[in-house]
Amino acid sequence: MLRLQPAFAASPWHLYSGMVLRGTRKLFAHLTRSRSTKEICMKPSIVLFGAALVFSLAVPRALAATSCADLANLKLDGVEISKAVAVDAGFMVPPPYPGASGIGPLPVHCRVDGVINRRKGAGDAEFGIGFAVALPAPGAWNGDLLMQGGGGGNGVVSYPAGASYAGDEIGLARGFAVASTDTGHKAKTGGFDFSFMRDQQAYLDFAYQANAEVAGIAKQIIAQYYAKSPGYSYFVGCSTGGREGMILSQRFPRVFNGIVSGDPAMRTGLSNVAIGRWIPIAYNQASPKDPSGRPQIEKFLTDNERTLFMNALMKQCDAKDGVADGMISDPMGCDFDPQVVACKSAQTEECIAPEKIAAIKKAFAGPKNSYGTQIYPGFLYDTGITMNGFAPGLLNLGAHGLFGPYPTATEIDVDKEALHVSDPLVEPASTNLSSFSAGGGKLIFFHGDSDPWFSPLDTLGYYKSLAETNGGPDKVAEWSRMFLVPGMAHCGGGPSLDHFDMLTAVVNWVEKGVAPDAVIATGKAFPGRSRPLCAYPRHAQYLGSGDTQDARNFRCQ
Question: Where are the domains positioned within the chain?
Fold first, then answer.
């Protein structure tokens, strides 16, 4: 099976360690963004490269598939096509879990499923990069590829519909050929099964290799089906998918023209130290104890205390955007200090005990090591910090975290906790995106202000570093933008406007040169309301007149 050599321009030396890469330059050639013949001819410096691209991707019309079923017999090096089936209009993708919404109805399309590099690996388990590609009817194809990112530990090939952050019209319905992948393994116990990492190649596929390989195979399938290679290629993902988008921009800068990276799982090991150890242990220090002396973190705050806290937060921060509407447009601009709700003397129902306030401030400030160095950013005081759900708000932890009961310890050795949790192969740390940006690539970040899993300040910190490395904020804004989403939890949910179309934003930027200063958002939490999500460092501000439910009466400032 051909393997890809990633582009690591000026990457730290440790990113190279442990790589097992096999392959040739030919596969990398067809992964490069498609360019027209005219463009190639006008740039002598890429003539030879363009020739390789044409050689690897051009499909003679005599060999082009004439039906969806023909793709089942397509022969590609190291690839098994397991099925190619025509899907009628109206098909609905079932909800992935109870309470979720299905996707559809989908238009007529051809779905191709396959596996790259099927093999026996560690523990005699079967591995391979599973993938699916949905191909619109030839007359409906818009000429482009859209790849959707994964989530959690991956291990599942999601239906390639292109629904994520596409607004009211999913990618497949817009005419995109859509691809998805399990990134090289099958999950055994759900979305957080990482047992596959015992296999070196499966680990490498998940870490950074699989998406680029699937993109290359998808482009070959597209070329075979339509007798034409895709003109532009896009990637949209959140959480693990957000991390994948960052990896692609850093290590495979010529594969995608436009990338949307939401709530990226950038530094999972350190974020787990923050939310799984640092925060609950801070709360344990001020939680009531059971008869055995065990901290009862689920009783850290009463419902009344949470209400007092949120009332104080909203009183100070809600109306700073010109309207009191249950949203905080600029949490960082509010500078809320929880001390305002601390009891000054005796405990009453109108205040919170000082030791609890101290614990909250410590928790939200984020973990520091024994040298006082911040190892992971803190979290924002925002409207979603008391929410319930799969990943509850940071002021409403309950007794169990995402992966089991919270610790009962009241002390933490951050130096020890943080010693072995970072993984350079998995973490998208590089800010040298010179090849990506020089090639016309566009990169959009977004992050929920109330994300209780990955701090929006971590993504913002990366974006600021990106600006420092690439000529400053104005220069980096020519090809990358960052959007903070008030109230939004991890990749959606919360008291937020979490329905928005980042796909159109990145397409218009790539193909029309229209940079996204604002993206309009709506959401079920506030029916009938719309707001602009503003490119950082701006936020939505009410104009002072007009319907406060209408985004047109707000500006980004």
Answer: 13-231, 271-421
